[in-house]
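Researcher: First entry.
Model:
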Amino acid sequence: MTLRTLNLLSGIVLLIVALSSCVPQRKFTELESRHAELNRKYNELDSMHSALNLSNEAALNKLDELKKDYNRLMEDYKEKEGLYDRVKKSYDQLTENYEKRIASEAMSKDELKKSLRELEAKLQKKEQELNEKEANLIKKEEEASKLSKNIKLIESDLKDREEKIKELESLIKKKEENVEKLKQTLTKALIGFKDNGLTVTSKDGKVYVSVDESLLFMSGKTNVNPEGRKALLKLCEALKGESDFNIVVEGHTDNVPIKTARFDDNWDLSVLRATSVTRMMIEDGGIDPLKIIPSGRGEYYPIDKADTKEARAKNRRIEIILSPNLGEIMKILNK
């Protein structure tokens, strides 16, 4: 029950007593005075209560602020504590390093002198190695200079070789063109003898005119017969003006052994037939003797190795080989 309620009840009681009984005026006056005093005290207490409520609310707010400050302080404390631990650890490490340094620097004078001597020996060794390296470097520089000169000489020589190669390629191409041109010229000039065992081919930069024995010679003879003579003169006529070619006349036989009063073997026969053709080409065909060479191959370069009558007939032949003059090429190679 609150103070206000008590005051109200006491006032009601006094009123009832005053109305229901004959109370002396003095007593009533005292009661009324007492009631007024109680009202005053009630008002004071009520004011105090309100003030206390405000003060309590302020205290609670202050308490919340203090709690927040406390939490912030605790966080700051923990942070500072961690920093302290790190600083202390660093301090301990520095202390340990310092003590090691002190212990390390506590070396005796003899040990220091010994270390100094060792260092001086190492320094002298390094200086010696440096001098050797410097000498090697100078040597390498001299070698590099020589190599550079050699490279320049090689480059110059390579350039000359390239020029020679280009010149040779041009000359070889020209020679090949001349060979092909000569082949066409001879093929055209000798076309009438194509069916009589005469062929014109080119191989390895040379022109080969192959003439069967049947067109040139009687069996076992070395004198050129009239039809063969006609073919050879046609050949010589086509070769007029072709000064850029050398001629080799090769005689070939089959592998049937021969032994007569005139011929010891097939080789003799092949040489004499080649000589007979060569002589006729020089004397009757006007070929320069310095540009033609007779040779006998005997049975050793057969066209067909079969042991048949037909194969042996193919192998009995005269080959007239026209080779380009390589004098210009040799001059370039010997530069």
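Researcher: Second entry.
Model:
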Amino acid sequence: MGKYLSIIRWPNLLMVPLTMYLMRYCIVQPMLDYQFSIQLGSQLRLQLSDGYFFVLVMINVLLGAAGYVINDYYDRRIDTLNHPESVIVGKSIPQRHAIIYHWALNAAAIVLAAIFAWHLKLFSIVLVYMMFAGIFWLYSTTYKRQLLVGNLVVAIVTATIPLQVGLFEYLTLTREYGYEMLLNSLSFMPIMYWMVGFAFFAFITNLIREIVKDMEDLEGDASCGCNTLPMAFGMRVSKIVVVALIALTIAALLAVYDFYLHESLTFIYICVFLIVPLVLAIVLTLTAQDVKHYHRISTLLKVVMLLGVLYSVVVRQIIRFVV
């Protein structure tokens, strides 16, 4: 059983429910409780039930798990060179069993997507999640071997996690309260602005980490013909790109604070828990010389991603006190 949990990278998958539940209960629900309800003079409630929200979360978890399995299946040769101790497919799990596992996870996700689509009466949702399953397959077979394409695919898919929360809550809320909001000249777009902000942070930090991982896995990627950024332009250019993207992230964080928030708790959190580790990542990138150094940067960026999601807890307090 342990090998089947290991292959789906369950610690990484935990970020999916963590992100989605924090977006729901630290952003969407407080906005309804402390802003919209007060402005309208009546209580607004989440319209997507806890049960169906759990279904939405599980769709994403299962698709992500299937993606990890198929990626390990096609990366056997690369992983044997880069991380021989972590190879599972072909050793602990037979190749045939890995493919069956992959399709079983995808099938479960699509069944749940059909249930979710039936509830919302939006049957195109099934096609969207089938497309996600196809993207994960194509990433493993094709995209990850193309210059920056694989990096961007991972970053974009990760960014959809908070966006899905905002989108489906928006759809259900507008069905129930849309007319009332229209009469009072109010909009649910402030909720979506927060979702977009978290989505951008997820996108940019994942893109940075994917490039760093390519720098870490240079030897194995080279032997298998992967046209990654370090392969195409060298480590020096890759370091410049990583540093530039981290600097862009820091600038974006400061800009959001300066133009929109002006709140002391946010300033402290951004500086201590996001900017300081990002500056450290810049220093480590500029001084990195071997695989262990790049692995350390990748781990640090994972921590930054987690801290970025946890900022939603601070947002909940901001929403309560600014009203």
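Model: Note on the second entry: The mean pLDDT is 89.
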